[in-house]
Specification:
The complex is a heterodimer of chains A (about 425) and B (about 140). With about 425 residues, chain A is an alpha/beta fold. Chain A has two domains: about 140 residues, Aspartate Aminotransferase, domain 1; about 260 residues, Aspartate Aminotransferase, domain 2 (3-Layer(aba) Sandwich), CATH 3.40.640. In chain A, α10 runs parallel beside α13 and α11 packs across α13. The two termini of chain A are about 25 Å apart. Chain B is built from six helices and three strands, in the order αβββααααα. In chain B, β2 and β3 form a beta hairpin. Chain B is globular and about 40 Å long. The chains are: A alpha/beta (about 425), B alpha+beta (about 140). Chains A and B meet through α11 and α13 of A and α2 of B. The structure holds pyridoxal-5'-phosphate. Pyridoxal-5'-phosphate binds next to α4 of chain A.
Chain lengths: ~425, ~140
C-alpha cells in the first residue's frame, strides 16, 4: 500500500477560514518563544520542525508557571489558607478555560489527566472494561497512535469484545465506503484520531459521530494533534470522549485533558483510586466523589494545569483560525518544495485534507540518517514509526521522517528543511 | 556547508554501508541471533561459524536500517573473524564505537551498537545453553 497523495481534488476545506482583522506576523510571534532564538553546535540556528512530538512554550506559559511557584504554590482543595485558596481558584479557572476552548457544556466534564495517553486509558478502563461484553465491537483504524489502539486491545482482551478496523484509502484517509457493514448494532465504540500524527489526515469526526450514534455506539476522539491547530467543539458534532495533551498545545508536560459527557463520567468506574476521588471511605468499601474529582485521584499536576490555562489564553490571543490559516500556507509551500526533491515520497492525503505534518521518505537515505544530517544543520525533525507501527506496516516501511509545522515556523525554515534533504542526498552520493 | 557537519558519514562508514563485508547468510551457522531497535525499527542478524577451538571462522550479518547500524554490522563481522569466543566476551562497547571511527551522538550510539548487542546476547545465550546450537 502506498498512501501517497492523489492529485489534489481541489476540495479546499479551509475556504471558510478567513483571517480576522489583526494581521499575523510570524517574527513578532517568534519573540514569544525564547527557545527558538538559540544557536546549536556549529553555530546553526535552531529550526524546530517537531511540534507534533511536543510544542515549544511561549513566555506567557513559563511566566505563569513561575508565578505559581513563586507566589501561591500550595496543594489544591485541601488546607483552608490563603495560598491553598488562591491555587485552587487558579486551577478551577484553568478548567474553565479548557471548557470554553473545547466548547464543553459543563465544567464538571473536564477531567485533568497527565496527558492523552492517560485520558484514553481512563476511557478504556473506566468505561470499556465496565461496559463492554463478549461479542461487542470496537471500531478502530490503522492510522491510530498506539495510545488509541493498545488500550483498546487490552480492553477487548479483558472483556471478550472484538476489534474491527476501518480500511484506509490509497491516499491515507478513512475509507468510509464500507462503514455500513462495519458499523452495526454490535459496535459499541468508534475510537478515532481527529488528526493523524503521521499522515496529517483530518478525519471526518462529524460524520463518524453521527453514524456511530445512529447505531447506538459512542465515539472517542484522540484530539492530541487537532486541538493545537484547529478549533474544537465537543458539542458540534457531539462527541462522547475527547482526549488531548497540554504539551502539544504549547503548555507544560504532565498535564492533559479528558472530556466526557457528564452521564458517561457518572457511569464510568474510576481509574486511579486514592485521595480526593472519594466521597466516603469505610474499612471495606468506598463511594466516589462527583466528576471530575472522581477521576483526579491524588495530587493532580495543578501548576501544570494552570500553565495549560495560560497556553490556551495565548493561543486564543492569536486565534486558532489565524494559526490554522498560516500553518496551512507553510504546509502548502513545504509540500510543494519537498515533493520536488528527487526520490522524495510524502505520505498521506493531498495538502488540503491534512494538517501541517509531512511524513516522508527519500530513496537511498534511511530516515535515521536523514534526520541526523538535518540535525547537524540545526533542523530538528523526528524519524521512526512515530508510535504507529501498524500504519508503517501498512505502508511497508520501518520508519519515516516527519517534519511538523507550527505557527512559529517560517518559510525560511521550510527552505532549510528542503536544503537539508538535498544535502543528505549528496552525502549519500545520490545523483 | 562544511563536510564536518555530516561527519559520521565519512568514506569509512559509507563504504561499509554500500559494499558491506559478509552481508548475507552462512549455510551452516553455529549460532545466529537477531534483534531490532524498537525506537527506529533497525534490524540486524549476526551469524557465526565457530570451529572446535571456539574460534570464529566466519561471521555474516543481514539486516535493514540506517547507514550507521548497517555499516557497524559490516565492521563488526570484519573484526571478529579469527577471534575466540573468550576474546569476544571481553570485547567492550567502547571498543566497538572506536572501530566506527566517527563521533556518534547518544541517540545514534544505539544504531552503532545494535550489532554489538546482538553479538553479546548471542554469546550469553551460548553460555547458558552450553551447547553450540542456534539461539533465538
Ligand atoms: C495522535 C496522538 N495521540 C496520542 C498521543 C500521545 O500523547 P501523550 O504522549 O502526550 O500522552 C500523541 C502524541 O505523541 C499523538 O500524536
Amino acid at each position: 500500500m502506498v498512501l501517497v497523495a492523489a492529485p489534489a481534488t481541489a476540495m479546499i476545506v479551509r475556504t471558510t477560514m478567513t483571517a480576522n482583522s489583526a494581521t499575523f506576523d510570524v517574527e513578532v510571534v517568534r519573540q514569544d518563544f525564547p527557545i527558538l532564538h538559540q544557536r546549536l553546535s556549529g553555530d546553526m540556528p535552531l529550526v524546530y520542525l517537531d511540534t507534533a512530538a511536543t510544542a515549544q512554550k511561549p513566555r506567557a506559559v513559563m511566566a505563569k508557571v513561575m508565578e505559581c511557584y513563586e507566589q501561591y504554590n500550595s496543594n489544591v482543595h485541601r488546607g483552608i489558607h490563603q495560598l491553598g485558596d488562591r491555587m485552587t481558584v487558579e486551577l478551577e479557572a484553568a478548567r474553565e478555560k479548557v471548557q470554553r476552548f473545547i466548547g464543553a457544556g459543563e465544567l464538571e466534564e473536564i477531567v485533568f489527566t497527565s496527558g492523552t495517553t492517560m485520558s484514553l486509558n481512563m476511557v478504556a478502563h473506566g468505561w470499556g472494561r465496565k461496559f463492554l461484553r463478549p461479542g461487542d465491537e470496537i471500531l478502530l483504524n490503522t492510522m491510530e497512535h498506539h495510545a488509541n489502539l493498545v488500550p483498546w486491545q487490552l480492553a477487548a482482551a479483558a472483556t471478550g469484545a472484538t476489534l474491527k478496523y476501518i480500511p484506509l484509502t490509497a491516499d491515507g484517509r478513512l475509507d468510509l465506503s464500507s462503514l455500513d457493514q462495519l458499523l452495526t448494532s454490535k459496535t459499541k465504540l468508534v475510537a478515532v484520531t481527529a488528526m493523524s500524527n503521521v499522515l496529517g489526515t483530518i478525519n471526518p469526526i462529524n460524520e463518524l459521530a453521527r453514524r456511530a450514534h445512529d447505531v447506538g455506539a459512542l465515539i472517542c476522539v484522540d484530539a492530541a494533534q487537532s486541538v493545537p491547530h484547529m478549533p474544537t467543539n465537543v458539542r458540534s458534532p457531539q462527541v462522547d470522549f475527547l482526549a488531548f495533551s497540554g504539551h502539544k498545545l504549547y503548555g507544560p508536560t504532565g498535564i492533559g485533558v479528558l472530556y466526557a459527557r457528564r452521564q458517561l463520567l457518572e457511569a464510568m468506574d474510576p481509574f486511579l483510586a486514592g485521595g480526593h476521588m472519594i466521597r466516603e471511605v469505610f474499612l471495606d468499601s468506598s463511594t466516589w466523589a462527583d466528576p471530575p474529582a472522581k477521576f483526579e485521584a491524588g495530587t493532580c499536576p495543578f501548576i501544570e494545569a494552570v500553565g495549560l490555562g495560560a497556553a490556551i489564553d495565548y493561543v486564543n490571543s492569536i486565534g486558532l483560525l489565524q494559526i490554522g490559516q498560516y500553518e496551512h500556507q507553510l504546509s502548502v509551500k513545504a509540500h510543494e518544495k519537498l515533493a520536488a526533491v528527487p526520490g522524495v515520497t510524502i505520505y498521506g492525503p493531498s495538502v488540503d485534507h491534512k494538517g501541517a505534518i509531512l511524513s516522508f521518505t527519500v530513496d537511498g537515505v534511511h530516515p535515521h540518517d536523514l534526520s541526523d544530517v538535518l540535525d547537524r544543520r540545526g533542523v530538528a525533525v523526528r524519524a521512526g514509526h512515530h508510535c504507529t507501527m501498524p500504519l508503517h506496516e501498512l505502508l511497508n516501511l520501518t520508519a519515516t521522517t516527519r517534519a511538523s509545522l507550527a505557527f512559529y515556523n517560517t518559510l525560511d525554515e521550510v527552505d532549510a528543511l528542503v536544503e537539508g534533504v538535498h544535502a543528505a542526498r549528496k552525502v549519500f552520493r545520490l545523483k | 556547508m562544511t563536510d564536518s557537519l555530516e561527519d559520521p558519514y565519512d568514506d569509512h562508514i559509507l563504504d561499509h554501508f554500500e559494499s558491506p563485508y559478509h552481508k548475507g547468510h552462512l549455510a551452516n551457522p553455529t549460532c545466529s541471533h537477531s534483534d531490532r531497535n524498537p525506537i527506529c525499527g533497525d534490524q540486524v542478524t549476526v551469524e557465526l561459524l565457530v570451529d572446535d577451538q571456539d574460534r570464529v571462522k566466519e561471521a555474516y550479518f543481514d539486516g535493514k536500517g540506517c547507514a550507521i547500524s548497517q555499516a557497524a554490522a559490516s565492521i563488526l563481522c570484519e573484526q571478529i573473524e579469527g577471534k575466540t569466543l573468550d576474546e569476544l566476551k571481553d570485547f567492550q562497547a567502547q571498543q566497538m564505537l572506536d572501530l566506527l571511527k566517527v563521533r556518534l551522538t547518544a541517540s545514534r550510539q544505539k544504531c552503532g551498537l545494535l550489532s554489538f548487542k546482538v553479538l553479546k546476547t548471542m554469546l550469553y545465550g551460548m553460555d547458558e545453553q552450553r551447547e553450540p546450537a542456534s539461539s533465538g
